[in-house]
Amino acid sequence: RVAPSFKMMENKVFMSFTFYSTILILKMYVVAIITGQVRLRKKAFANPEDALRNGGLQYYREDPDVERCRRAHRNDMENIFPFLFLGAVYSMLDPSPAVARIHFLIFCVGRIVHTIAYLLQLKAPTRSVAYSVAQLPCFSMALQILLATTPYW
After folding, report:
1. DSSP conformation class of 47
2. 82 domain residue, yes or no
3. Structural domain includes residue 122
4. Contacts 24+ apart (CB under 8 A), 48-53
């Protein structure tokens, strides 16, 4: 029996999508680690058992810095997860590899700048501009997917 061929791995667009998606997922893991480190540094735990292990129930509390990290992570989930769907489907539409790479790169850089602006509390409108720029390729991919699938509606 012959092993199945991995045609998607021969698709330059899909490989580019995979590269940028993996960077974004690793970035999300880094934000989660940062959140945990800020919790430990600020002694602000979300669960009473964690507070008890780290000094007492008085540390079962919220902290503005921890909440900022959590909001950055939540914003990533609200934006990166849809990108993963859109990018995967868009990769199947046989777009130009150069154009697709630009879509993926813009989204990835926008999300990285957004996270840096969020965590470092950079001056407005840095974060909102990064957010908006990252949305452009998503809207473009969504529109192209809709146009390609409209005949099947």
Report:
1. S
2. yes
3. yes
4. none
> Going residue by residue through the chain (153 aa), what tens digit of pLDDT does each one get?
655 456 767 899 999 999 999 999 999 999 999 999 999 999 999 999 999 999 999 999 999 999 999 999 999 999 999 999 999 999 999 999 999 999 999 999 999 999 999 999 999 999 999 999 999 999 999 999 999 999 999
Q: What is the pTM of this model?
A: 0.92
Contact 145, 86 (CB under 8 A): yes
Domain of 126, CATH number, reads 1.20.120.550
Q: Is residue 125 reached through a cis peptide bond, with omega within 30 degrees of 0 on the bond before it?
A: yes
User: Residue 133's domain spans which residues?
Assistant: 6-146
Tokens (6 digits) for 149: 């699938």
For residue 1, tell me if it sits in a domain.
no
Contact 28, 72 (CB under 8 A): no
Number of H helices, E strands in the chain: 5, 0
Domain total in the chain? 1
120 found inside a domain: yes
